[in-house]
Amino acid sequence: MDKNQPAEAHVLTRAQRHQKKKTKKNKGKAWLIALCVLFVLGIGGYIFRKELMVLAFDTFLADTVKNTLDESYAPIDQLPRGGGDVLMNVDELSKEPFSVLLLGTDQRDDELARTDSIIYSVVRPADNKVLLVSIPRDSYVPMVGTPTIKGTRSVTKINAAYAYGGAQMSVDTVEALLEHDVDYYATINFNGLTDVVNALGGVELPITETIENKQADHEKFTIEANKPIYDGTEALNYVRYREDSDFKRTERHRIFLKQILNRMKSVENLTKIPELIGIAGNNFKTNMRSDFMLSLAKTVILNDATPEISSHMLQGEGVSRDAWYYMLDDSDLEETIESINKWLDPNSTAEDLIVDDTDEGGKSHTDQEGQPAGDTGQ
């Protein structure tokens, strides 16, 4: 054949032409299916990432976490939530407003355990809001139940309630002070805080000036300002620091709670939950059942943002008697009780939930966006 002549066209039969069109059509379908799968996995995975996190939590973590949480269950003598003998189910419990008394102890060696941090909180799962009412540990209040315990005082610093009668007396005393029930309590020893923070890879803290313990009878430490992340030891020192004021100290406790919650919500830290709870171990006790805590955890995961936190510290004045006490202001206490009442009402509006966050000098401890203001040391 002359190579300069065009090649003879290859004539296809009808069957061959049909098969060729079918092959092209199938290839087109394959590409379309592949694109659809990528869309579902990509866009769908982004849209439903929270649901996928909950699915992963239920599939891989729930049983392990539940078993560990069951070991931290420590009930006290009180009526169950929901009214007398009628128990609310887990779904109902995790949607209605409820109160939790947070007790942070700082027991070292053979010291008598007292509550270094006392926060009455109201959680509103339906609208993703939390109220934190800090009760200064030196508040001079009546102790509930002391007549039955030898060697106790009927009126003294509120942090002695835990030393006298553990979580039970702390709950009873706070209920009497704030005139509202404590639905749940949770006690954690600060000794477990260091390992928890380190397991999370540290925590962000808004420290704008160096914090340093200087007093002779205090443990010496320095926390540098403006670091991107702080380790467990620095976080522990941050919540322990008390050389400025009790108001600032309780503010730091609230800031830390918010920042640690932010840290735990990240996808990479979700799988660390069993490890974190294991670290807490004997340092954590609560009367919340594991099913309720797991349901609440999934509610937090499914929300678009970290709960909006409002805070207030009971106001008063320091006086020196046989020791230094914090005498609570009656009018502020009454206003706080009324505020708690609104927060526990599921029908309250956003305006009802506005909280006075100023200290005794009229200075606000939140920034313009309603978040805790940056902390400063001495």
TrEMBL record:
UniProt domain Cell envelope-related transcriptional attenuator: residue ranges: 114-266
One Pfam family assigned to this protein is: LytR_cpsA_psr
Alphabetically list the UniProt keywords.
Answer: Membrane, Transmembrane, Transmembrane helix
Coiled-coil boundaries: none
Return the Gene3D superfamilies for the record.
LCP protein (3.40.630.190)
Q: Does the keyword Transmembrane helix apply?
A: yes
InterPro entries of this UniProt entry? LytR/CpsA/Psr_CW_biosynth, LytR_CpsA_psr
UniProt superkingdom: Bacteria
Residues crossing the lipid bilayer are 30-48
Specify where the region named Disordered lies, as residue ranges: 1-23, 351-378
Question: PANTHER family from the xrefs?
Answer: POLYISOPRENYL-TEICHOIC ACID--PEPTIDOGLYCAN TEICHOIC ACID TRANSFERASE TAGU
Indicate the family of this protein.
Belongs to the LytR/CpsA/Psr (LCP) family.
Q: What is this protein called in UniProt?
A: Transcriptional regulator LytR
Q: Whose protein is this, by species? A: Saccharibacillus kuerlensis
Q: What is the lineage of its organism?
A: Bacteria, Bacillati, Bacillota, Bacilli, Bacillales
| Name of the coding gene | lytR
